[in-house]
Design brief:
Layout (H helix, E strand, L loop, with lengths): L53 H23 L4 H24 L4 H23 L2
Helix pairs in contact: 1-2, 1-3, 2-3
Keywords: Membrane, Transmembrane, Transmembrane helix
Length: about 130
């Protein structure tokens, strides 16, 4: 009946090469030998996407929404620009303070802008309501 086979022989990933026949330092059969001293250098660790100082990213993320709110204020007309400026700056700083937590956990710039949308517009509407249109 021929040679006795182990039950795992022929399974996916199994090769017929006898590991005892190859020395551990030899390359795979058919591969050229490695030239001496040309081993690749290990890669340096890279910083994650959200690396870097958190405060500039937290101030920049709601700044886009401030620009949109300013554009809306210019188009619709404003009764008092100093009050409207205050209604823009207060939500901007409060939203930046809220964004420090996700920024320190590694959130990227796109996620920070998306997370800034809700708190900024909610606080902006509250400030406009309290300070007047």
């Amino acid at each position: 009946m021929g040679e006795e086979r182990d039950p795992w022989q022929g399974a996916p990933g199994w090769s017929g090469v006898d590991p005892d026949r190859l020395a551990p330092h030899e390359p795979m059969p058919g591969a050229p030998p490695y030239p001496p001293g040309t081993a690749p250098e290990p890669a340096a660790p890279t910083a994650p996407a959200g690396a870097g100082p958190a405060l500039p990213r937290c101030l920049a993320a709601p700044a886009g929404w401030v620009a949109v709110a300013l554009l809306v204020a210019v188009v619709t007309g404003v009764g008092s620009w100093p009050l409207r400026g205050l209604a823009l700056v207060l939500p901007w700083l409060a939203t930046a303070a809220v964004l420090v937590f996700p920024a320190r956990r590694g959130a990227g710039p796109g996620l920070l802008v998306a997370l800034a949308s809700g708190p900024f517009w909610l606080l902006h509407a509250l400030a406009v309501g309290l300070l007047g249109w």
